[in-house]
Specification:
globular
Length: 91
């Protein structure tokens, strides 16, 4: 029974570790496909939406950065995020 328990614990640990490898890498330059849409408020491209969804876990960190926060909190950013189906979190 101890062998079975140890195996289950090991499997759970591996699953947790593998799950953490999918965490987003926060790189504001990944949002460059959205630059035109963020400045104009025009409907975003599919490439922009893909990048925006991938960077969503990073938004709170971006809002704390004085250089980036003004873009994340802008009305156009909210339009683009809404069009992509991405929520901007309240941090």
């Amino acid at each position: 029974m101890n062998t079975t328990f140890s195996f289950v614990v090991l499997c759970a640990l591996v699953m947790v570790l593998l799950g953490n490898t999918n965490a987003a890498t926060c790189n504001p330059q990944d949002l460059l496909p959205c630059a035109t849409f963020l400045s104009s408020g025009a409907p975003p491209s599919a490439a922009c939406c893909i990048k925006l969804k991938a960077q969503q876990p990073c938004f709170c960190g971006y809002t704390k950065n004085p250089s980036l926060g003004k873009y994340i909190n802008s009305p156009n950013a909210k339009k683009v995020a809404s069009a992509c189906g991405v929520a901007i979190p309240k941090c």
